[in-house]
Amino acid sequence: MGQVEARSAPGAQHAADERPSEPALIEAAHVTAGYDNRREHTRLIALRDVSLQVRRGEFLAIVGPSGCGKTTFINLIAGFVKPLEGSVRVRGEEVTGPGADRAMVFQDYALLPWRTVERNIRFAMENRRGHVPKAEQAERAARALRLVGLTGFEKSYPHELSGGMRQRVGIARALVTEPEILLMDEPFGAVDAMTREAMQAELEKIIAETRQTVVFITHSIDEAILLADRIVVISKRPGTIREVIDVDLPRPRFDEQSDVQRSPRFGEIRSHLWSLLADEALGAKQEGATR
Amino acid sequence: MTETIQSPARTDGQQIETIEVSKFARFKSVGITVVNLTIFFTIWELVARAEVINSLFFPRATDMFAALFNGFADGTIWPQLSHSLTNFLIGLAISAVIGIPVGLLMGASKVADLILSPYVWAMTSLPRVALIPLLILIMGFGNSMQLTIIVLSAVFPIMVNCMAGVKTVEPSLVRAGVVFGASRPQIYLKVILPYTLPFVISGVNQGIARGLVGMLIGELLGGGGNGLGFLLDRAGEQFDAPMLYATLILLAVMSVGLVQAMRWLEQRAAPWRDISRA
Ligand SMILES: Nc1ncnc2c1ncn2[C@@H]1O[C@H](COP(=O)(O)OP(=O)(O)OP(=O)(O)O)[C@@H](O)[C@H]1O
Ligand SMILES: [Mg+2]
């Protein structure tokens, strides 16, 4: 299975020399996760022995073939899925459930269809946890909408919007609570190339401002390189960490002048990622053939 | 009913145009219905006048309307109609008050579902008529028996639909609720209940249809001597075909009216479902 960087499975010693002063914000240690099928008495292992640390303020992208457990990993951090083995910690504390410090952008939007765009965004501010004073809600919602470029659609219902617009509502809803950790599950999957790039640039700007920690799932190699500080490549199911790649490209990457996409380093990382993922796809095919 | 649409400044440059919607558009369907019914009753009248069918079974439309008018004028219809309508609405209200919470509970709690569902499904599929002898035995021929059969008819479809609504809530919506800080009660109030509302309404719709059957069974077989069922029964015994048909028309109007009222309610309660189609 090719070379695996030492970082993909940080031992105690390695974790110590990475950031001696500051402990990792998110730490997954030897996590195995899966889903039980009670009817057939089987257990599907989605992730196996995954160890990973996410530093405060880091932008971590996760790539890997479909069904390799990316959403499962993000759900572990969110607190929806409990690990079968190992542990997931945020700020050193074991994750037992969702918390106001972690907001999520869902792969399938998960907007409330009976609420207008504005009221969907307010939903994040009006509940018991992470409650924002009423007077402040409208202003914050308006700011979040401006950020994702949806001013003027406050009164629209989700079914009146395109897929990309719905996803932007989902992003605005996650941003409006100003969470410490932003979990994003293929947030730009349903957006056209032009809008996608505009939103990537916007996201980079937002993150630079808010200093949020982001865990970002994507199927696009370019997107991962453009946005991330580090990229985690997950192998096909059961998902294990294949490699962790440092993206040492200068920021901001969406600046008019900076032509990151044409830099040789970008090309290097890109072709390396390509070969890794092609391996995975090939492996999956061969395995299918021998079955 | 979008007469004019304001064009707000939209950031992504989407163009919103103001459109004219004809003021007569909404009268069009009413007009079609009027013409439709006129033709229907005219054909009825002509067929009856041709006496293809024995007028004992098939009176003229005009005779039917005359019976309807006279029935209201001499006070034979109104007490029975109001008896039926009152009974029905009370029965439906009781069914909703019992059926909606129990159905929601069954959807939300596995234990409640396991305990209650055998009875609910048995009662949902059991033909209502089978209960009449027992109910007469217990309650006699009075009003309470008629009311009971309405409730027993309407309450179970309402229950089953509410349960289905809660059970089909999209898991990712519940997850969104949890992620964005909703407590358990808030999840029920802000996610599960609104999601279930259309199911509740369609449950009540089915409850109306079943409840009407229950009402008629109770009045026809219960022998209480009142209600639209009693009118039907008596007109049949007296070979009063115009009155028989007049009562049937009343029943049809009553059920269509109720269903339309529910539709109106549905559009109020769940406008997100198909704004574009309305
Ligand atoms: N709720 C669930 N119950 C049972 N199995 C599940 C569930 N969710 C995911 N799985 C299984 O776990 C595996 C990993 O799923 P996951 O959603 O994490 O993949 P993914 O990497 O996000 O895929 P994609 O890129 O297609 O979104 C899949 O094989 C999937 O079938
Ligand atoms: Mg996924």
UniProtKB/TrEMBL annotation, chain A:
UniProt region (Disordered), positions on chain: 1-22
Keywords, sorted A to Z: ATP-binding, Nucleotide-binding, Transport
Domain of life: Bacteria
Keyword Ligase appears in the UniProt entry: no
ABC transporter domain mapped to chain residues: 26-261
GO terms of molecular function: ATP binding; ATP hydrolysis activity
Pfam families registered for this protein in UniProt: ABC_tran
Protein name (Swiss-Prot/TrEMBL): ABC transporter ATP-binding protein
Species whose genome carries this gene: Planotetraspora kaengkrachanensis
Automatic annotation (TrEMBL), chain B:
One of the Pfam families matching this protein, by short name: BPD_transp_1
Domain named ABC transmembrane type-1: residues: 81-260
Any single Gene Ontology cellular-component annotation: plasma membrane
Membrane topology: Multi-pass membrane protein
InterPro entries: MetI-like, MetI-like_sf
A biological process term (GO) from this entry: transmembrane transport
Transmembrane segments: 29-47, 88-107, 119-141, 147-166, 187-205, 244-265
PROSITE patterns reported in the protein's UniProt record: ABC_TM1
Stated family: Belongs to the binding-protein-dependent transport system permease family.
PANTHER family tied to this protein: ABC TRANSPORTER PERMEASE PROTEIN MJ0413-RELATED (PTHR30151:SF0), ALKANE SULFONATE ABC TRANSPORTER-RELATED, MEMBRANE SUBUNIT (PTHR30151)
Name assigned to this protein: Taurine ABC transporter permease
